[in-house]
Design goal:
It is built from 15 helices and 18 strands. The model has no long low-confidence stretch (mean pLDDT 97). It has 2 domains: 234 residues, Aldehyde Dehydrogenase, Chain A, domain 1, CATH 3.40.605; 183 residues, Aldehyde Dehydrogenase, Chain A, domain 2, CATH 3.40.309.10. Helix 3 packs antiparallel against helix 6, helix 5 packs across helix 14 and helix 9 packs across helix 10. Strand 8, helix 9 and strand 9 form a beta-alpha-beta unit. The chain is α/β, with parallel strands linked by helices and 456 residues long. The strands form 4 sheets. It has a 7-stranded mixed sheet with strand order 10-13-14-9-8-15-16, with helices on both faces. It has a 6-stranded mixed sheet with strand order 5-4-3-6-7-17, with helices on both faces. It has a 3-stranded antiparallel sheet with strand order 1-2-18. The protein starts with a helix and ends with a helix. The protein binds nicotinamide-adenine-dinucleotide. The site of nicotinamide-adenine-dinucleotide has 28 residues, from helix 7 and helix 8.
Length: 456
């Protein structure tokens, strides 16, 4: 898209916001209802686009993209009105007599930048939260999933007035140009590398940001874990979208004593879920492009213990297990593909220390029957969020915030947390004419005593 066209959209959004059209929640609700209806209307087009970009099956597309987006809209339709009301808070005695409250106000013009791996859900969910809180949004979806980006553009144009929510298609150049403009809030989902650029650019305008980033998410398997069930849930979380999931278990970190048995359980589970020939399984997604395919292939050396077959024509790689240690190539960076390294520990204290010696992960999973072991990892490791005895499902709840910390992100969204992310709360004290005179000059010993009585 041409720069001039982008500037016109930015200007239109500024005017739209100043018009105050979305001040009333009832207007936001109408827009969200239209979005809900149009997602249903364009359901087939969305499935087709996800199939073309990532070979996602209809079931997987509904479960991890459409369904989650629809349920976020329903959540905001149900709760948004309440969230949009002023919140009374207790007034301290020193302010007596007065009322204190917070006014939820939209930031204004929001820029949402989304990635290619869940290209629909990771575009729609932030839009829903931003619109529910009264903002305008420019969405810049990923150029790497072009079919979904095109459907998103059509869907947004069908659902929102121009100036309220708009889509700018394009890649790095368009995104950089957008980042040079003065937005009131930037919401970015993508790599830690680009997240850093986004944050630096936002600083130029003092613009607050949410960064939803990536990293290596450890999946701890303790010797007390139910190995069959753990294998089932790890295989689900790891190979969903062929491992191209920010919260996928990046590697299994298991107790040395159960390693061999656990590997057998994972192998059996991969066959159960994907069949003996996953490359021929039509509902198994592919790598998004040749570049990602080549990166994954480079991990497949003599350390493969299961899987490892690739099909360059379809850009698919089998669910693969590799034996690794912390010095292996596969353990240096986020994998983001269907390759699962198995790394072991002998001692839980050391395992906690090892995890904490790496950048703070977006998610951490603990498989264990021992409450003590569960609590040890939950309390002593720093990470965004996670599950005990399951993987990735914590992101599928509008009641839980979702986000990372430090290298894996800043801020959260989903449900109430999402509403708050895009809201500035103005803190107000409303006073009448009655006055306590002790704060005014001239000061005296008595006034000093009274002030000390109130403020302690
Ligand atoms: P990416 O950072 O390459 O791209 C994300 C967006 O930034 C795209 O829209 C792209 O056009 C834009 N972009 C790319 N380079 C840019 C630049 N130099 N300047 C300005 N804009 C630029 O990420 P990706 O490859 O699309 O997604 C994969 C990454 O995203 C993984 O690291 C994954 O863990 C992470 N991710 C995180 C979450 C989360 O919710 N925390 C969700 C999905 C993906």
């Amino acid at each position: 898209m041409e720069n001039q066209e982008i500037l016109e959209i930015v200007e239109k959004q500024r005017m739209f916001h100043s018009s105050g059209k979305m001040r009333a929640f009832s207007e936001r609700k109408k827009a969200l209802k239209r979005l809900y209806k149009n997602i249903k209307l364009k359901e087939k087009d969305i499935y087709e686009a996800l199939k073309k970009d990532l070979n996602k099956s209809e079931v997987e597309s509904y479960m991890s993209e459409l369904g989650l987006s629809l349920s976020e809209i329903r959540f905001m339709l149900r709760h948004g009105k309440r969230y949009s009301k002023n919140k009374r808070v207790i007034t301290p005695l020193a302010h007596f007599p007065a009322k204190s409250y917070k006014i939820p106000c939209p930031y204004g013009n929001v820029l949402v930048i989304s990635p290619w791996n869940y290209p629909f859900m990771l575009s729609i969910e932030p839009i829903v939260d931003a619109v529910a809180s009264g903002n305008t949004v420019i969405l810049k979806p990923s150029e790497i999933s072009p079919n979904v980006s095109q459907v998103l553009k059509e869907l947004i144009e069908l659902s929102f007035e121009r100036g309220h929510v708009d889509v700018v298609l394009g890649g790095k150049e368009e995104c950089s140009f957008l980042l040079d403009q003065d937005f009131d809030y930037i919401f970015f989902t993508g790599s830690t590398r680009v997240g850093k650029i986004v944050r630096q650019k936002a600083t130029e305008h003092f613009t607050p940001v949410t960064l939803e980033l990536g990293g290596k998410c450890p999946c701890v398997v303790d010797k007390s874990a139910d190995l069959k069930l753990s294998a089932r849930r790890i295989v689900f979380g790891k190979f969903l979208n062929a491992g191209q999931t920010c919260v996928a278990p990046d590697y299994v970190y298991c107790d040395e004593s159960i390693k061999d048995k656990f590997i057998e359980e994972i192998k059996a589970e991969i066959i159960r879920q994907y069949g003996k020939e996953p490359l021929k399984n039509n509902s198994y997604p592919r790598l998004v492009n040749q570049k990602q395919f080549n990166v994954m292939k480079s991990f497949l050396k003599d350390n493969v213990i299961f899987g490892g077959k690739c099909d360059e024509g379809s850009l698919k790689i089998e669910p693969t297990l590799i034996e690794s240690d912390f010095d292996s190539e596969s353990m240096q960076d986020e994998i983001f593909g269907p390759i699962l390294p198995i790394v072991t520990f002998n001692n839980i204290d050391m395992a906690v220390k090892k995890i904490n010696s790496y950048p703070k992960p977006l998610a951490l999973y603990v498989f264990s029957k021992s409450e003590k072991v569960q609590q040890k990892f939950l309390r002593e490791c720093d990470f965004g969020g996670g599950c005990i005895n399951d993987t990735i499902i914590h992101i599928a709840s509008s009641k839980l915030g979702f986000g990372g910390l430090k290298q894996s992100g800043i801020g959260e969204y989903h449900g109430k947390t999402g509403f708050d992310t895009f809201t500035h709360y103005k803190s107000i004290v409303k006073r009448g004419s009655l006055d306590l005179p002790m704060r005014y000059h001239p000061y005296s010993e008595l006034k000093y005593k009274i002030i000390k009585m109130f403020l302690k």
